Amino acid sequence: MIQLPKELLKAIKAGNVRKFYKSAIWQAVRKQVLIRDNYECQKCKEKGRYSKANCVHHIKHLREFPLLALVLSNLISLCNACHNQEHPEKLKKYRAGQKEYITEERW
Ligand SMILES: [Zn+2]
Ligand SMILES: [Zn+2]
Which bound ligand lies closest to the C-alpha atom of 62? Predict the structure, then answer.
């Protein structure tokens, strides 16, 4: 298991998830997950469809479970449409008038 550096754990707990998503260690783990999942959205795959994965999602959300940030079994490749469904809270914000909807997990 890959250890989450203490400074990143601190940043997540402080709400600074950008710092985490921009870290080299996340980029490396993210890539591992995409390769494991063949760059395919795993939710679409379940339904027998093919979509290219655009992001790697934390099944147990990062902010609530920072200790699972780099645990491969907590990570899944998803397309944007499926990813949005996993984050109704972000969608609500978007509908409320945010101009651009860019998910942090795409980084
Ligand atoms: Zn999908
Ligand atoms: Zn997500």
Answer: 2
Helices (H), 1-107: 6-13, 17-21, 24-36, 42-46, 80-86, 88-95
In a domain, 63, yes or no: yes
**How far away, in angstroms, is 83 Cα from ligand 2 center?**
6
Ligand 2 centroid distance, CA of 56 (Å): 7
In a domain, residue 1? The reply is no
Please report, in tens digits, the pLDDT of each residue of the chain (107 residues total).
Answer: 788 999 999 999 999 999 999 999 999 999 999 999 999 999 999 999 999 999 999 999 999 999 999 999 999 999 999 999 998 876 666 556 554 445 567 65
Range of the domain at 21: 6-106
Instruction: Please state the domain count of the chain.
Output: 1
